[in-house]
C-alpha cells in the first residue's frame, strides 16, 4: 500500500488547507558554542557540511550551512512576483527551511532526529575551503547517529510511512526524498522541505504529490535490494553521509 492512499492532508498546490497553517515559531538558540570541539566530518551535501562535535562530555552532529545568496534567487523571481529579498531568504534559504520544519515538529523526536537549536559558528576548521574564509556560518546542532545505524531497515518501514503522513499533516513537505535523509528510520535532513504556509512551492507550481511518489519509490527500491536470506532486522538501505 502506498503512502498516498492514506494521506489525510490534500497535497494540491492551490489547497486552502496550506494557507490555514500558522507561521512557524523561531527555533531556539543553542548556547554552548564556545565549548564546541570539531572531531571529524560526517558528510557533505549540496547545502551543508556535517561534523561530529563535542560539547563537554556530549557528542553531537553539527550541520553548517553554506552562505545563501538571496539576491540571486530574488532576481529570478522578482520579475514575476512581488517579493522582497528578505522574503526570498525566509522562504527559500535551506537553513531557514530546516529551522521552520524543526520548529513545527517541536519535541516529536519519533518523527525526526532531535535538533537542539541553531547558532552561528566560526569557520576556522580546515574543511571550510568551500566557504568564505573566516565568515561565521549558521548551523544546527542535532543528535549524533552512530556510524553503525543504517538509514533504515525494512522493519522500520511501517513507522516511516506513518511518520511521513504525520509530517504532511503538520504541513511539512519533504522534497528529494532518499535514504540519506534518514537515520535509524527517522528523518534527519529537512533543508529541502517546505513548511506551510510557505507559498514558494505554490507559485513555482511544484507538484506536492512528487515527494509521496519519491518516498514510495525509495521503499520499493530498498525492498528490491533485499536478498532472499536477509532478515527483517538487517539494513534495507544504508547511506554513508549524514546531511
UniProtKB/TrEMBL annotation:
The keyword Nucleotide-binding applies. Residues 222-243 are annotated as: Disordered. ATP binds at residue 63. This is Protein kinase domain-containing protein. Residues 222-235 have a biased composition (Basic and acidic residues). Keywords: ATP-binding, Nucleotide-binding. It holds the Pfam family FTA2. GO terms for molecular function: ATP binding. It comes from Trichoglossum hirsutum.
